[in-house]
Amino acid sequence: MPKIPLSWLAESVSLAPETTPEEVATALARVGLEEEGIHGPGVKGPLVVGRVMSLVKEQQSNGKTINYCRVDVGSHNDPAGPGHKPDHKVDYPSSKGIVCGARNFVEGDYVVVVLPGAELPGPFPISGRKTYGHWSDGMICSSRELGLGDDHDGIIVLQSPSGESAEWGGYGDAELTPGQDAIALLGMDESTIEINVTPDRGYCFSVRGVAREYAHATGASFTDPAGIDVTGEAGTGFEIRLEDQAPVRGRVGCDRFVARIVRGFDPAAPTPTWMRGRLEAAGMRSISLAVDVTNYVMLELGQPLHAYDLATVTAPIVVRRAVPGESIVTLDDATRVLDGEDLLITDSEGGHAHRPIGIAGVMGGALTEVSATTTDVLLEGAHFDPITVARTARRHRLGSEASRRFERAVDTQLPPVAVQRAANLLAELGGGTIEAVYTDVADVAPVAPIEMDADFPARIVGVPYTTDQVVDSLTQVGCRVEKDGGVLIVTPPTWRADLEGPINLVEEVARLQGYEGLPSVLPIAPPGRGYTHSQIVRKSVARSLAEAGLTQVLTYPFISEKRLDELMLPEDDQRRDVVRLANPLSAEMPLMRPALIATLADAVRVNLGRGSQSVAVYETGRAYLSRLVGDIPATYSGTSITPDDVERLNEAIPGQVRRVGGIMAGHRVEAGWNGPAVDWAWTDAMAMVERVERACGVVLEILPDVPEGSGRISTAPFHPGRVAMYCLDGEIVGAAGELHPKVCENLGLPARTVAFELLLDPMIAESEGVLVTASPVSQQVLAKEDFAFVVPVSVAAGDLTEAVIAAGDGLVEDARVFDVFTGPQVGEGRKSLAINVRMRDADHTLTAEEVLAVREAIIAAAGEKFGAVLR
Predict the structure, then answer these.
(1) pTM value?
(2) Is 745 helix (H, G, I), strand (E, B) or coil?
(3) Residue pair 12/224 in contact by the 8 Å Cβ criterion
(4) Which residue of 64, 120, 267, 680 has the fewest CB atoms within a 10 Å radius of its CB?
(5) Could you give the angle at which helices 797-807 and 848-866 cross, rounded to 10 degrees?
(6) H or E element, residue 218
(7) How far apart are CA 327 and CA 344, in angstroms?
């Protein structure tokens, strides 16, 4: 996000002297530039110019030499009187006593003094204090203490007795006065506005672009800082060749390259204070004059530049695509292995265009950077393809100020102007001479005109814009507009590459005419529409689980490599077919989750770590398996993505099945006066599945274990003896139960943590179109019978109750197991299941004979199917 100093902005657009930063931010917001922050001066309180009246060097017992100075700070002086050292008293004129350890100043020097009550960047409040036997009433400042640079070897000397200044140039001939405000003198009273720029407004990454927008918002007069004359002649200067002969994805990497030489540059020339201050305010640090000038022009005009040490570059410079596998050492001293899609700046060392000296639009190379010995500078200003630069920057994780601008599109007409501006500054500030002949290799396609009906903006926005209003707005933007009857032929300016069609022009008209004038109209919902069946069911599932005491969460779908092992998934489990991200947000989490439990565990652990004793959460979302991903097309059919390309992509990456999952740890019921705490049990997880079943309107089949022929599916991460698998139409759709003790240990969860996870989409599809009817309340008397069947331990209670209900021939309303008993009384390998059976007919009260007949049928069916006998 660019930071724009107001004093710099005022050079391109007229700002009234009393205009506040808040008023500027409000005006910019009217044209779509959102303010992210307003930053004021970094120093508060009295910071003044001081003249050193006397300087006494004193050797301390620790070996350090300090200076006790009397400094004239004008109206801030103490009255004349004795000094403050106890062993001798000397009368001093009106001044301030300050202790300073620096050695780069003498009596008579003008310095920068911060006085008690002030606050330096940090924040670092200043107060008087007793030190080295003196009362020090302030501090003589270095550039680092003021946040103006990294130099801390000595203090800032504004002017010396000889009339020459230290490294802070520009004050040798100035008339400095003790007590003079140094905040304004050093340009530290600057207010800066930080702006959030959307990707389509890349021209606003410059003072030039923001000034233009402020002029649109307020009608203030705009002076284009790029409106300077390009001197000299475009001819055979430093030779440049554009050899991007095989455009990648139909895009040419570089269509303009300007090079110009400045000779006799003084590498020791300092960056002036005003430029350094503006760079710092804009968020960039000062490096050297040559580099600072290129950065300054980039911030001012929006055109990234690069400066080469001419002595290290061999003509011609060739712009080409990289050879896969070749490498370059960039300015950050990192060696980067290049991809065949990367665009390079290379020189011709040895007569061949093989040596990379920069990654185009991203970062220069270390071999040709300007240094403390550079006297001849080659300036580069080019126009690179936004997509090529963006892909390279992301591929190498090398975002830079240059790439941020190039990937949002830069004005194709700026390179010669920006190079001229930088050359002028180098000549002015560094004493260089600009060569008259420069190189401008250009193959820029003309901007295509856009045809638009004059009433199109009014139809789209719903505001009756007149033709004159439309033309005036587009003209303000910089478009050239011609009328052909009721059709406007609009040619966008070169700095607005985002204006590609009529709808983009409509946005500009609405923006400049004022968003505040748009009427607020509530849309009318078309009759007969509402939530889809899937939306209704998903909302019902979420509401049902929330009513059961679970909290809905949303977790990131990324997991680490070791998470699959932590879940104890077998090597042949299909959930190990994970999707691996080519460019993950975090190198520690490169995989997409194959199950919701994999990321829900992190949410539980975080909440437990923050003091929660019990946590119960659920999530509805998607998980990802690589077997569901098709072949992604490697190339597109043209220069841009077409509907056919979109269809191919959709086929390659099908929608993932929606899931619902939850984890419960700790107490289901907290301890209280009326009873002890009750922990979550694995049966509670099954109860949550029943809630999901009811919300979806389906009935799932419960399996005691993974059936044969179910593919690479296991009960992991659940305890194999406390888990229920669920099927729908013969397909496994989920599981519920207690997590394996080792899984709980791996994930940092409490012992006996329970969980569930189900596939939602198959359950939603199963209930699609099913008419839900309410069961009438019977008026007949209920008959109840209890049975205690002794069956083999392998018989599932659910299978027995289903057999009991079926045997009732429609008269058994419900059957539930209320007791399970094992012991020597029932025999080894057997168990007793006590079942309560409820019987009722819809149209009459059952007779004793009918109840007896149902009882006998139940006993017979249980004996026939399971070998059950009454206990």
Answers:
(1) 0.65
(2) helix
(3) yes
(4) 64
(5) 140
(6) helix 207-218
(7) 11
Q: Which residue has the tokens 């001044």?
A: 95
Angle at 390 between CA 384 and CA 394, to 5 degrees: 140
482 is written with which tokens?
A: 């011609």
**Residue type (1 letter), 435:** E
Query: What are the distances in angstroms from CA 24 to CA 19, 30, 412, 763?
Result: 7, 10, 29, 56
Angle subtended by helix axes 289-301 and 273-281, to nearest 10:
50
Residue 826 CA to residue 828 CA, distance in Å, equals 7
Q: Which of 516, 545, 564 is where one domain is finished?
A: 516
pLDDT tens for residues 381-432? 999 999 999 999 999 989 899 999 999 999 999 999 999 999 999 999 999 9
pLDDT tens track for 242-301: 987 556 656 788 999 999 999 999 999 998 878 888 888 888 888 999 999 999 999 999
Q: Which of 418, 442, 466 is the last residue of a domain?
A: 442
Q: Which residues of 352-380 are buried (b: 16+ CB within 10 A; e: fewer)?
A: ebebbbbbbbbbbbbbbbbeeebbbbbbb
Pairing of strands 615-622, 551-552: parallel
Distance CA 63, CA 59 (A): 6
Q: What is the DSSP string of 233-292?
A: EESSSS-EEE---S-BTTB-SEEEEEEEEEES--TTPPPPHHHHHHHHHTT-----HHHH
**Phi, psi angles (nearest 5°) of residue 607:** -70, -35
- Residue 223 within any structural domain of the chain: no
> How far apart (Å, rounded) are the C-alpha atoms in residues 76 and 48?
9
